[in-house]
TrEMBL record:
One of its GO terms (cellular component) is nucleus. Residues 1-11 have a biased composition (Basic residues). Signal peptide: none annotated. Residues 1-45 are annotated as: Disordered. It catalyses: L-seryl-[protein] + ATP = O-phospho-L-seryl-[protein] + ADP + H(+); L-tyrosyl-[protein] + ATP = O-phospho-L-tyrosyl-[protein] + ADP + H(+); L-threonyl-[protein] + ATP = O-phospho-L-threonyl-[protein] + ADP + H(+). This is dual-specificity kinase. InterPro entries: CLK_kinases, Kinase-like_dom_sf, Prot_kinase_dom, Ser/Thr_kinase_AS. SUPFAM superfamilies: Protein kinase-like (PK-like).
Amino acid sequence: MDGVRTRKRHRLSWDVGPPETQAVTDGRVPTAAPPSSPPLREDDREGHYVYDLGENLTPRYKILSKMGEGTFGRVLECWDREKCEPVAIKVVRSIHKYRYAAMIEIDVLNHIATNERGRSCCVQIQHWFDYRNHICIVFEKLGPSLFDLLKRNKYCPFPVDLVRDFGRQLLESVAYIHDLRLVHTDLKPENILLVTSEYVKVPSQKSNLQGGTRFRCLPKSNAIKLIDFGSTAFENQSRSSIVSTRHYRAPEIILGLGWDYPCDLWSIGCILVEFCTGGALFQTHENLEHLAMMERVLGPLPPRMAQKANPSAAKYFTRGAELNWPEGAASRESIRAVGKLGRLKDLVGRNAECWGGSFTDLLRGLLKFEPAERLTAEEALDHAFFQQSGPA
């Protein structure tokens, strides 16, 4: 897929020298870097910035709270004294590879924000600076993630109209970044944020054990934005062989067959199933079990993919290119976990009668084993599921 797309490798705007030599205060790479600001205190052992709530991150930003933490560093909620508004600041670990990745992310974010379409569907970078050897990226402050929304509702499925709205916006975001020749590579509910934090309580379809009414929280506004472009790849740049968070990782990645735009669409298929069931489709942490779960839900892997698997993945198959399951299972618990899954139509249908028809057909198009056969984001947006309202 997309083999006809040819374009010179995107030139990074900061390709004027290694990022560790750059100390900036205004988000631009200077021709001669000013001296780095001296450390306020030592970083922790992993290179994370150590801070106290209420202190300043440069005179402009006051640290209010920690919003999250990951391999890259920490996200802090700060008060922007200049604009008099809250912002989210990604403070990257003071380690070369993470600083380098942060500079690529900044370039991607600036590339995405080239027109109104990008600003409306993806998180917006406002500014960036290098502070005490930490790359700091300032973003607009958004609401909670869709994973947080699921968790808040104790992993109850979203209503069908909400899934349709979220799915449409997610596909529009991905269609936009694919048009820019970018592959996100880490789509998951944690990386899809509501624009605001306001909720309304509505009665749940299920009653509690005492016969009373149960409520669930739904967003006042369904507007969402895509975040975390730290793993995003430009077309034709050198790439890591393993990308994506495990539960949303496409089969071609596991098999070492290379990856491209279709890996994002596989992730979207997994995300939409999670929205309609409340739980991750492939809850596993091991490759063979993961492939067995895929076969259980979607049918057998195409022999061509098994035959072309790289040497490290070939061990998952017999000489006849069939998955070595359950013989190769690591434990009986693993066999049981796979056995609990059903076919895609049944998984979707068992949660609500309306989750059938066109929705299941859309999922089949997104979860094709062969990347070239998968729907593109634009094709998925034209699917019948998004042309209707009410039951799927």
